[in-house]
Amino acid sequence: MSVVLKIKEVTAVAINQLYGIDLLPVDILVNATKPEFEGDYTVVLFAFIKQLKKSPDALGQELGDHITTENQHLFTSFNVIKGFLNLTVADNYWLHFIGDQYKNISFGCAPANGQKVMVEYSSPNTNKPLHLGHLRNNFLGRSIAEILKANGNEVIKTCIVNDRGIHICKSMIAWEMFANGATPASTHTKGDHFVGDYYVKFNDEYKKEIDVLKTQGKTQEEAEKEAPVMKATQQMLLDWEAGKPSVMELWSRMNSWVYEGFDATYKRIGSDFDKTYYESNTYLLGKDLVETGLAKGVFFQKTDGSVWIDLTADGLDEKLVRRKDGTSVYITQDIGLAEQKQKEFNAGQSIYVVGDEQNYHFKVLKLICQKLGLPSADGMYHLSYGMVELPTGKMKSREGTVVDADDLVDEMINIAKQKTEELGKVKDFTSQELEELYNTIGLGALKFFLLRVDPKKKMVFNPEESIDFHGFTGPFIQYTHARIKSILRKSGTIQKQETGNEQLGTALLPLEKELAIHLEMFPVILNDAATEHDPSKVAIYIFNLAKIFNSFYTEHSIGNAETEEKKILRLQLSQLTAQVIKTGMNVLGINVPERM
């Protein structure tokens, strides 16, 4: 149990013993004490003043006296400032903590809790390659899955591939018109890039045809409807739905090119899935649930035969769930797929990692599933995230202005190479070691930059800024880890005294204590990140840990410490810091090098 949880617990006990009031530890707010005040942790008292009918100072003094008297092994002193009870934790507590945990490679991770969680992410379309927006999605989904695992959950990672529809047919029509039988192999092009190029070619041709029709007197709307390439695409979609063999063969072939390309990118960026669903297999799901909803009175039918749900009482509006011609809409498929996934995996929580433009869709989806009484409904959670832009602005797939994931990764690795060579510390690396290092730094910079921001916020990605070795970046943390591993290699095995750290007989210096306090917070940070579905909490924590360690190492010698006891203590602190950095970065999907 962390010291924060212990403080919450002893405060709840003290309030009960002094005033006869039962409070849960979770009801008590504990923060790190502000640097300008004496103490390590602060109990915020304002929530109890009215209930206990005490002045802030009197309440603080009584609680402080009771807590420190009853827990002398844990606290050495307290002070009260305007409704804040500041407690100083005994050095022995930190010495015990460091001595107990410095060899613990799973420190921060919780044991299995029997809970099952599904995380759905990536959701690509098979008419274009993965791009920068997909990278934020993949990194968020993968890191949330790993954070949830670290908290003891069994996690199933899934992906739904949008492999059907009018946008897929656009690439197919363009290939028929312009490819002359070309393939990824014949053009030496990665499959997803190859198909994406034809999606852009479709749009170029569509614009040309619209312009021609407008010169013939058509309005913009008429030209868009009557353009031959669009009519051919719509016919192809009808042929696909009818199962026309030639269309199905082309669809299957072009999708196979894309999947091969996706797989290469996923492998490169470290994304993987336990189960992949394809919209071509799921788009008919949910039709039976429409009938169920009509029978239950959840849905209603309009005079034209279309089926709707009225969500106005929930602050939303009416939503179509089946068209008048009997065909389903996206929300219907999603309801059906939610039911199928629940039957297949029986997860208590299902997290959808999807951009914030779909916020309304997921509110409606959850509400409908709840009203239908689906067992998966209450556990549905939309991990909404903001758009990623470049310094040059927004990106558009159909106009070919999107930054492809592969191109961006290449650029990051090249910048990593350039920056590392400028530092000039890798002259003894083999060519293979250098290639691995550049990949580790480049991908680490990319992932950290995209994960260090609260998912809900929009962000601008700047490749050069993301790879600064001295900034709020992945490479700064990676360099700190490599630095610690170098220190540990030079110092040899830590000879811990059998009697334990409490016998070291030395007070902790301020930076030693600050480092120990920050390290001890790691399990709490991992738990908060899981609860709030926010990997940025881990990213910020690890960055601050690296900063504290660098301050500590600048101030205090390890190899030439004042005493052997101090050397042992500082080596233990260093080893635990390296382990926490490694674990924290790993849950973000980032590797840390042993040297760089």
Care to describe what's here?
It is a single chain. With 596 residues, the chain is an alpha/beta fold. Among the domains are: 3-89, Arginyl tRNA synthetase N-terminal domain (Gyrase A, domain 2), CATH 3.30.1360; 165-270, no CATH class; 287-327, no CATH class; 416-587, Orthogonal Bundle (Isoleucyl-tRNA Synthetase, Domain 1), CATH 1.10.730. The protein is 55% helix and 11% strand. It contains 23 helices and 14 strands. Strands 7-6-5-11-12 form a five-stranded parallel β-sheet, sandwiched between helices. Strands 1-2-4-3 form a four-stranded antiparallel β-sheet. Helix 5 links the parallel strand 5 and strand 6 (154-161). Helix 13 (287-296) crosses helix 14 (330-345). The protein starts with a helix and ends in a 9-residue tail after the last helix. The mean pLDDT is 93.
Q: What structural category characterises the helix and strand content?
A: alpha/beta
Please tell me the overall pLDDT: 93
Biggest β-sheet description:
5 strands, parallel
* CATH class call of the domain at 416-587: Mainly Alpha
Number of separate strands: 14
Radius of gyration: 29 Å
Name of the CATH architecture of the domain at 416-587: Orthogonal Bundle
Share of helix, binned: 55-70%
Query: Which stretches are low in confidence, meaning pLDDT under 50 for 5 or more residues running?
Result: none
Portion in beta strands: 5-15%
* Broad shape: globular
Number of helices: 23
CATH H-level superfamily of the domain at 416-587 = Isoleucyl-tRNA Synthetase, Domain 1
Kindly report the spatial arrangement of strands forming the biggest sheet.
Answer: 7-6-5-11-12
Distance between the termini: 35 Å
Reported by name, the CATH topology of the domain at 416-587 is Isoleucyl-tRNA Synthetase, Domain 1
